[in-house]
Amino acid sequence: MQPAPARTTTLASVGGLLWSPADSPAFEVEHCSWYRALLICLVFCLPVLAWSQAANPTRRNGPSKPKVRVPAAVVNVYAVLDVDIYAVVEDRNGRLVENLTQQDFVVREDGARQQISYFSRDNDAPITLGIVFDTSPSQGSVLSLEQQQAKTLVRQVLRPRDSSFIVQFDQRVELIQDLTCDQDLLARAIDATVINQRLYSAKEPPAPVLSHPSTGGSHLYDAIALAVKLMANQSGRKVLVLLTDGEDLGSEVAKEEALENAAKADVIVYAVAVTDKAFYQELGLDFHGDSVLKKFCKVTGGRMSRGTDSVSTSAAFNQIGEELRGQYLLRFTPAKSGDGSFRKIKVQVPGRRCTVRTRTSYYSQSG
After folding, report:
1. What range does the domain containing 30 cover?
2. Cα 210 from Cα 132, distance rounded (Å)
3. Whole-model pTM above 0.85?
4. Would 359 be classed as within a structural domain?
């Protein structure tokens, strides 16, 4: 009888363990199934865990900050807004007084003294300068002189951060140049103003004008209304220079409305009245322009000057430039809260023989 053949044992190492498939067939099956299950688990679970981490960065980066929504409009619940006053002070000879301090001024609102919260002699506030030309036939003999002086005023007053616009009016109101700081554009717009020597027809195209023609020939109040609208939302000093004899014929906007609009927008009105009275005499018309211009200038804190020739006209423009460079800025917070009411302002320099020119009133702003 031959001896049984020797059994060969194959050892394998898995995970550091030695085992024999011949000796332990059940162990082989069980461990293969276990490793296969572990591999399947890893294949499917690892991507899920990675996705969970990417979708929820809070665990990695810490708690996220809450988002805050800011309302589109912020309401001033106190309804008290500062009031700026630009003041020009002159001595008895009409010369500017430029050495005053905050303690020299007294500001009253409706008779009640107000505390000045800010004062400045070196007024560096930006300027929005509007220049309005009367191009009706009554200005035919003086327009060229006005153009020359207006260009000089722009060169002397405007700084890089200031802006200006040019309007002309007769039977229509036309914006020749919108707000710009480009002095070359302003100079070309000034030269482009031209006297209207004919009557407009209602059939003519209106572009690029801002009002429609009518039977009248000098829409001064309409022009003021347009200029005020252009400056209403500008910051700093808003100065309107009117080059006209002050006569209005045919405006849709009433004088009182134009004046109220200028006051509400804090516009300072200057007027250079270069008048050809012979024109009105030849037509048999009365002339009342001076009183209108004086009222606009007095209420807003500006000045009306007359230009009878090149010398006086040049002096009037120079005076405007000097005053804009020599204004005092006074700021106060009204003791009464804003309610949209009309309030009177009075600025004085007690103990000094001088005249203070400022706007005489303002409309309080409600919150």
Report:
1. 22-54
2. 13
3. no
4. no
